[in-house]
Specification:
The protein is mainly alpha-helical. 61% of the residues lie in helices and 5% in strands. It contains 45 helices and 10 strands.
């Protein structure tokens, strides 16, 4: 009797043995089923050794209750107490799997399957499992026999007599035996179908790879041929009926539940294709239509049931195609893209608990291993295993993977698979999610031998192993490339030159020999610099491979590293600041412009960090002007001042281009900018502000050298065209007007001479050949065009516009905005031109006709011969000119009455026109989308080629790089061009209505 208020000694013992509900356990131990052994220390010790002692005790009591009579109950108890092997196996299963406890309660004699302890029982193979299923004659009896075999696998697993890889192999052998038994049942039920065809079942996925889970879809492909004398069409129908029946036998629920779903969706054409094909039909599909992932899936193809000869013929016929897959264009990119798509499809609230598909999960290891197998397996048959761990071991032995990396991945994969097994074993349900409940985590942790603090230890080990996989799974592909050119210790395997070449080609390098030379120059040696490079390069190589021109990325990285190699902060920045290395890789491999700007002043790499170095955020015009004016003020002469201003411009162009590239490509932590219009606006504003600051600094330097602090005439620069509209691109000239006004008491001729000298000197200094890109000043939009004076007084402008102004000049003045020089003079110039560009009466029909004629003449004269008009971003239908002229006609007609239209910016004017009801929201969106896209293409062309252009490049790598910038992955250049034509075609329809028909 227990004294009230005190715990019994049994209660305390139960707590010490790991029971979480000792009161309930005490009641069960005091029950009639266990009366004879309740005080036996052996039983309590054995229960305490299980994953969940409470669950094991409850399952044991249920099993005893289910025995048919007292004699059977006594036999079970005597065996549990006397036979340690049975005790460990039975209680181990009961403490790990509620589902198998349910099975034993329904089939109370099945515990006998755990009694035998012969070598064949300890290490069963396919023969033993076939023997275990031999008596099954229908779906119900097959399920019972399957669970009985599964019981023995689980017992060996939880007792540790088989490791996780051996358990997975046993589960695959049991699945093979089950498929054979199901096919035999299907054939027995339809002997005529069986006689008409030869049907082979090919296991795919984890079953084919001999690494199955406890509960998983069993992926298969069916191949059939007509039996001798049978007609092929009828034979295929017979084979399809047999295959369908096999799938139902395994998948359908009965009173004994289901076994597992049989999934045939990896077949050619997936669920849309025929369930069964002939070998010739399979072969034709894979030769003509198969995608990269389908060859990746065939790595694990293994004949398991049905006609063995046909199954072997299938594998032999398709195997050569598998090992040619790495030669396909964009092979690595396709595989990696598929992996990313898998991760993206995981619900956000589950991604961190997803053991299989999440970052650092099982699939990362499997994808990395399969990628390497496909690249190198053609030349090295030792790599052609369908089993992940065996393939990983072979890759390490051949030097394709570093031994230390392979060991870490092997350990991580085994741990994660063990977790997956324990999670599924509990309820025998298909899941890869780590549970959140403490009791579940405690059971899993204890089952893996973590007994001190199971929940904390399990979580720590799980996160550690996923961290290892995250860190290694992509680096696995690149690190051996460095080992191939580095000095290794004796006995270390390395990639052969040919294997390194194969891998680089698979990654998209066009010149693998040059790439290896760059790697050798960067990473060989024993210096600290080389050691850091060996740490950085595996990751950088992956980012280079994600671009359209990996060769350029690596070459540019070598150039930057050579220039900055002795600078102490450079490699430290790349190693320690998370964003810097990836940003640099994106910038160096995206085209010519940004690397060219960087090479002229490599220290600008510091801008790519995420620390306090300014980063990639654009600087304001005021900040830029302050820096440029200060630099010009410190210079000894005008030329030095302008050189300083151009240096600032170069640096800020690099900042803008780098931010644009990173925003367009996205990074591992930050997706690509979804708002394309925002990207365009940022570039346009940044380049326009930078150009204005450069002109202000140049003006200051020229005036200071020639006249000291004060020029004899007030002087202002008016931005025109895309400059005035804050829409400059990387390669745009600066369209301007120059206006001056003599100071009091200064002769007009003297003032005019001074103004003209300023303009001439500004233009000269901004175009002097140097390391910095020139800034071309274009004043052709001035009154009288090229025939008119470069500089006019404000009064001269007023007189000209009053007497001679033409429609095209009013049109051009819509974009006029002061950008440098005397602010008051610039403001008064704007006051002068406002009545011209925003006429009170709008436009008369003659003026509209004149604008249309001007546009038509411009397009016919300026469109390059041989260019495809539909792909010309400026003059083509639906391009920049179409959209801008349509918006500007609306401004000329309505700005006098609609204040929102009084802006120099195209997108702002378009939005104002929409708000004023001058065009529909749909039409405005169509025009805006086309304008943004055309501008993005122009920016891309300049970034990629390093020189301005209005059409898509014709060279394939350059075209692919433009596509990558616009968000199109490898192999989707055609989609990009189709999308451009479609977008501009829709815009042209709106232009026809508003500009030509309105």
């Amino acid at each position: 009797m227990t004294v009230p208020g005190r715990r019994s000694s049994t209660f305390s013992r139960l707590l010490r043995h790991g029971f979480t509900d000792p009161s309930a356990a005490e009641r069960l131990l005091d029950g009639p089923e266990l009366a004879a052994v309740r005080s036996d220390p052996v039983l309590l010790e054995a229960l305490g050794a299980t994953a969940d002692p409470d669950l094991a005790l409850h399952g044991l009591v249920r099993l005893l209750e289910a025995q048919p009579d007292p004699t059977a109950r006594r036999e079970l108890l005597d065996t549990v107490i006397a036979a340690k092997p049975l005790r460990d196996r039975l209680l181990g299963v009961l403490g790990a799997s509620a589902a198998l406890a349910d099975h034993l309660a329904r089939h109370p004699r099945d515990w006998h399957a755990l009694v035998t302890y012969e070598p064949s029982d300890l290490h069963p193979g396919l023969v033993e499992f076939e023997r275990g299923l031999r008596e099954a004659v229908d779906p119900v009896s097959l399920r019972v026999a399957y669970r009985r075999c599964l019981l023995s696998i689980a017992a060996r697993d939880v007792c540790g007599t088989r490791d996780v890889a051996e358990t997975a192999a046993e589960l695959a052998d049991l699945a093979t035996a089950t498929l054979r038994a199901a096919l035999a049942i299907a054939k027995a039920a339809a002997p005529e179908d069986a006689a008409a065809c030869r049907l082979a079942v090919i296991a795919m996925g984890k079953c084919g790879g001999h690494e199955l889970n406890y509960v998983s879809d069993v992926d298969v492909i069916f191949v059939a041929e007509a039996a001798e004398g049978a007609e092929e069409g009828k034979a295929l129908k017979s084979a399809t009926r047999l295959a369908s029946q096999l799938m139902r036998i395994c998948s359908e629920s009965t009173v004994e539940g289901s076994i597992w779903p049989v999934d045939a969706n990896l077949r050619p054409e997936g669920r849309n294709g025929p369930l069964v094909r002939t070998l010739a039909s399979h072969l034709a599909y894979y030769q003509r239509w198969a995608k990269t992932w389908e060859f990746q899936a065939l790595l694990k193809a293994r004949p398991v049931a049905g006609d063995a000869e046909l199954g072997r013929a299938y594998v032999e016929a398709l195997e050569p195609l598998v090992w040619q897959a790495a030669e396909r264009e964009n092979f690595v990119a396709d595989v990696q893209k598929m992996r990313r798509r898998v991760v993206e499809n995981i619900p956000a609230d589950e991604v961190e608990r997803e053991l299989k598909l999440g970052p650092g999960g099982l699939r990362d290891v499997e994808f990395a291993v399969q990628l390497l197998q496909l690249v190198h397996g053609r030349a090295d048959a030792s790599l052609r295993s369908g089993t992940t761990l065996s393939a990983l071991q072979a890759l390490a032995a051949g030097g394709y993977v570093g031994r230390a990396d392979a060991t870490q991945l092997d350990e991580a994969y085994r741990f994660l698979r063990s977790m997956e097994h324990r999670i599924q074993l509990y309820r025998l349900r298909r899941t890869h999610l780590v549970p959140e409940g403490e009791a579940d985590l405690r059971r899993i942790g204890r089952s893996l031998g973590l007994r001190t603090d199971p929940v904390a230890e399990l979580t720590r080990e799980w996160k550690r192993h996923t961290g290892v996989v995250r860190r290694l799974h992509e680096k696995l592909f690149y690190r051996p490339l460095l080992d191939a050119v580095a000095q290794l210790g004796p006995g270390e395997a390395r990639l052969s030159p040919e294997a390194a070449r194969e891998r680089l080609i698979a990654l998209g390098y066009a010149d693998p020999a040059a790439a290896l030379r760059h790697l050798e120059a960067l990473a060989s040696g024993v210096t600290r610099k080389a050691a850091i490079q060996r740490t950085l390069l595996p990751v950088l190589l992956g980012w280079f491979a994600d671009s359209a021109d990996p060769d350029a990325g690596l070459l540019n990285f070598r150039k930057v590293s050579d220039a900055l190699g002795k600078t102490p902060w450079y490699l430290r920045l790349l190693r320690d600041e998370g964003a810097a290395a990836e940003n640099l890789a994106r910038v160096l491999s995206a085209g010519r412009l940004a690397p060219d700007l960087l090479m002229r002043a490599p220290e600008a790499v510091a801008l790519l960090g995420d620390g306090d170095g300014g980063g990639l955020a654009p600087r304001s015009r005021a900040h830029l002007e302050q820096e440029v004016l200060a630099a010009a003020g410190r210079a000894e002469n005008a030329e030095q001042g302008v050189t300083a201003a151009r240096g600032v411009r170069r640096r800020e162009l690099f900042r803008t281009a780098a931010a644009d590239i990173v925003g367009s490509y996205g990074t591992e932590t930050q997706p690509a900018e979804a708002d394309q219009g925002a990207l365009v606006d940022r570039v346009g504003a940044a380049v326009s502000d930078l150009t204005a600051a450069t002109l202000a600094g140049t003006l200051r330097a020229v005036v200071r050298e020639g006249w000291g602090d004060t020029l004899p005439t007030r002087f202002a620069v008016i931005g025109m065209g895309r400059f005035g509209g804050h829409e400059l691109g990387y390669g745009s000239d600066a369209d301007v007007l120059f206006v001056h006004e003599p100071r009091d008491g200064v002769d007009e001729r003297e003032a005019g001479d001074a103004a003209n000298k300023v303009v001439a000197e500004m233009r000269r200094l901004l175009q002097i050949p140097s390391l910095d890109p020139p800034l071309l000043i274009d004043a052709d939009l001035r009154p009288e065009g090229k025939s008119g004076p470069l500089v006019r007084t404000l009064k001269s402008y007023e007189a000209y516009y009053r007497r001679w102004s033409l429609v095209w000049e009013s049109h051009a003045l819509l974009r006029a905005e002061p950008v440098a020089g005397d602010e008051d003079l610039g403001r008064r110039f704007v006051e002068l031109i406002d009545p011209l560009r925003y006429p009170a009466g709008g436009l008369d029909e003659e003026a509209v006709r004149e604008i249309r004629r001007l546009k038509a003449r411009m397009e016919s004269e300026r469109l390059p011969r041989g260019a495809d008009p539909k792909l010309h971003t400026k003059l083509g239908p639906g391009g920049l000119s179409d959209v801008e002229w349509t918006v500007q006609v609306l401004q000329l007609r309505h700005a006098a009455k609609v204040p929102g239209l009084r802006t120099t910016r195209t997108r702002q004017a378009l939005a104002a026109a929409r708000e004023a009801g001058l065009l529909s929201a749909e039409d405005a969106e169509i025009l805006d989308e086309a304008w943004v896209l055309a501008t993005r293409v122009r920016n891309a062309v300049m970034l990629v080629r390093g020189r301005a252009g209005d059409t898509f490049p014709t060279e394939s790598r350059e075209l692919a790089a433009v596509g990558r910038y616009l968000g199109y992955g490898p192999g989707h250049v055609g989609d990009m061009l189709d999308a451009y034509r479609r977008t501009t075609r829709r815009a042209r329809g709106v232009v026809e209505e508003l500009f030509y028909g309105g």
